[in-house]
Amino acid sequence: MSFIPIIDKIVMVKQSINLAYGFLFLIVIVSACSERERVKGIDGQVLRVDSVQMAVIDTDIDSLISIYRLPLEEEMNRVLAYSAQVMRKGTPEDLLNNFIADLVLEHGRRLYQPDDGMQIDFCVLNYGGLRTTIPKGPVTVSGIYELMPFDNEMVVLTITPENTLDLLGYIASRSTGTPIAGIRLGIRDRKVAGVSIEGQPFDSGRPYKILTSDYLAAAGDNMAFFLEPINYELIGMRIRDAIILHLEEQQQAGIMITSQLDGRLYYAE
User: What whole-number distance in Å separates Cα of residue 181 and Cα of residue 171?
Assistant: First the structure.
C-alpha cells in the first residue's frame, strides 16, 4: 500500500490551515487599524485551563484518524537505504549537490522518451531546494521529505544556444553552488571560464535539452531564460519521488549510497 497520496493530502491540509490563519491575521490587522481611533480601553480576565476546561477528545474521530496515523508513521520511519557518508550541500560543489543532480539526471533519462530522438544534455537544479543533509547511516522516508519538501515535477526544457549561454553565465555568477550533472563548468570572477557538456565543448549552433524542476522552468530563482523554451516537456515524476525510487533501488541491490566531488563546478585559475 502506498501512503504517498495520504502524505500529500496532509501537506495540502496543512497549507490550507496556514493560508486560513494568514487570512484571519490580515482581517484582524485591518480591523484593528480601522478601529484604532475608537478604542478607549481593553478589558480582560484570567481563564484557567486545566483538565476540567480542556476539550474532550472525540473518540470516534480519534479512532478514525488512528487508522491512517499509525500506518503513516510506520511508512515515514521506513528505511529507504543506508548512506556511507554524511552528504551536505556546498559551494561550488558538494556531495549532496552532486548526488541529487546525478540521480535526477539518471532517472530523467530513463523516463524521457523524446520524439526527436535527442536525449537530455544536462541537469540543473536549485541550491535552495535542498533543505537538509543526508546523514550517515539509515535514510528514512521522512528524511527525504525534510530534504525535499516540495512537490516539484521533473521538466525537460529545450532552449536556444543563446539561452543556454545565459544559463551557464547565471550558474557562474551565483554565490552558492548550483546542483548540476552532465556538465563541467569553470568559473573565474563569477564568469564562465570553460565548459564541456558530456565531455564535448559547447556548440553554439544547436539547442540544448535541460532537465530541471517546474519551479525553475517558471523562472524561479530569476531564471528568466527558461520562460520561452523551444519545447517544454513534463516527464511525469516528482524530484522527491525520483530520490525515493533511487534509494529503494540501491537498497534492493545491497548498495550503500555514496557521493564524490569530481570538479564539475570549479574555480579556474
Answer: 13
**For residue 208, what are the β-bridge partners?**
159
Count of CB atoms within 10 A of residue 126's CB? Answer: 19
Per residue in 63-107, pLDDT (tens digit) is: 667 777 878 889 999 999 999 999 999 999 999 999 999 999 999
Q: Tell me how far apart the alpha carbons of residues 252 and 234 are, in angstroms, rounded to a whole number.
A: 28
Domains of the chain, first to last = 4-35+46-76 (no CATH), 80-267 (3.90.780.10)
**Residue pLDDT, tens place only, 195-248:** 999 999 999 999 999 999 999 999 999 999 999 999 999 999 999 999 999 999
| Residues 6+ positions from 53 with CB-CB distance below 8 Å | 47
**Predicted TM-score of the model (pTM):** 0.77
